[in-house]
Amino acid sequence: MSISGKNLIAGEWSGDFTKGFSATNAVKNEPMPEVFADASETEVEQAIARAHQAFASYSQLPAVQRAKFLRTIGEQIVALGDELVEMACAETGLPAMRIQGERGRTVGQLGLFADLLEQGEYQGVFDAADAERQPLPKPDTRLGYLPLGVVGVFAASNFPLAFSTAGGDTASALAAGCPVVMKAHAAHPGTAELVAQAISKAIELCDIDAGVFSLIQGKNYAIASQIVTHPMVKAVGFTGSERVGMILQQQINQRPEPIPFYGELGSVNPQFIMADKLATEASTLAENLVASLMMGQGQFCTSPGIWSYVKSVDTPVFEQAASAAIAATEAGVMLTPAMAESYKKTVASWQSIDGVELLAQGQSGVAHFTQAALFVTDLTTFKANTVLQEEVFGPCALILRLQDEQELAEFIGLLKGNLTAAIHATDKDMAQSRTVALSVAHKVGRLIYNQMPTGVEVCASMNHGGPFPASTDLRTTSVGSEAIKRFQRPICYQNMPNELLPQLLRS
Known about the structure:
Layout: E1 7-9, E2 12-14, E3 24-25, E4 30-31, H1 41-58, H2 63-79, H3 82-92, H4 96-118, E5 125-127, E6 141-147, E7 150-154, H5 168-176, E8 180-183, H6 189-205, E9 213-216, H7 221-229, E10 233-239, H8 242-253, E11 261-264, E12 271-273, H9 275-293, E13 306-310, H10 315-327, H11 337-351, E14 357-361, E15 373-378, H12 379-384, E16 396-402, H13 405-414, E17 418-424, H14 430-440, E18 444-449, E19 488-494
Parallel strand pairs: 7-8, 7-10, 8-9, 10-11, 12-13, 12-17, 13-16, 15-16, 17-18
Antiparallel strand pairs: 1-2, 3-4, 5-6, 6-19, 14-15
Helix pairs in contact: 1-7, 2-4, 2-6, 3-4, 3-6, 4-5, 9-10
């Protein structure tokens, strides 16, 4: 397929290249040849209006037909073949194996929701009538779920497939019966267009209203504001920085009609290393943490950013092993030059903080590549410098040496909300692990034992969210079968005749 550089507006490709932009080849650090059009205010308006029109028919589409649509999208994504992989690799600098795996996850997510729709997983709750109940008879009540309406989705920078055009937010919204207006990420517009072409083909094959999906390209910040404030948009899914997320949240809060904003904004994913684990497996654990940190050049939302333990005679063994592993890492490319520059500035600023020591750095490389960095500090310095408590997007980790159990409890109290935390322990550490787990559970959406935080299983029991700023709604997940509930609302039907009930609620 060829890249048009245009926006997909309800089945039609359009775009004015007067204000066009290009992505950057992340590895070569040079502009890519494709030019993309900044969407106009009119095009965004058309996309939202057509999505609103499509909602009338799409929301009534039987579950089995929505399932077929989701599967067809997956088939069309696979049919893109190597072209999709090559484009995504060029735009992000991520290796082909990573993109291939992410493509599999994207198709798998679509298939998961298709399976659940076919199985009647979301059919609702039935409470039968009881005419004999005293003092009043009980009516027949049935709890069902209605799609919210048009959903605005913002693609993630670090997952060009699984959290972008046909990613988890799009898949769960379409599964719920909601049309999607997708704002592509400006770092990988070519990848976004290819996937949009696949979705457009699936719409055609399944004979669905083309307004059910539109792709908006552009670097113009006004596009985001127009989407989140538009009265026809009824929910927003966002993955990005805390700064941008809070701007969008503020704009949503000023709407006459409040709508849900499901934002994933940042996480340091603290690691808690217990005493016996440190004494018996220091070197292995250090190497595993470095390997987890380096996945995607530290650009996973679940990357382990802070490693904590109570100091002991085993501390030097762990730190030496971690330093050696960091020093052996090769310099790598980040998703965009701006992200690489921001990372380098953060690492440089940390080196100027009194009480913070740079333990090790990775190997140097091409000028626009980044080196891994491992720092160490104490609780007093950590408390005094809030910058150390924020997520660093890139291959950087901070070791926090604690003096005793009291400092450990104080550190947990300082933590903001996180997507994950992990406890690394042996059976001998069970008492201490229990104390940590009880406290840390209130700070995270997923608590892990003796495994790394990177990697998210797409299944019914997964929760990918957490207290702010990990996400803007700690009651929801953006991964797994429960993600669909973000784009539905409950409705109770009381004493309704069968003919007036939705299919799944009929006797």
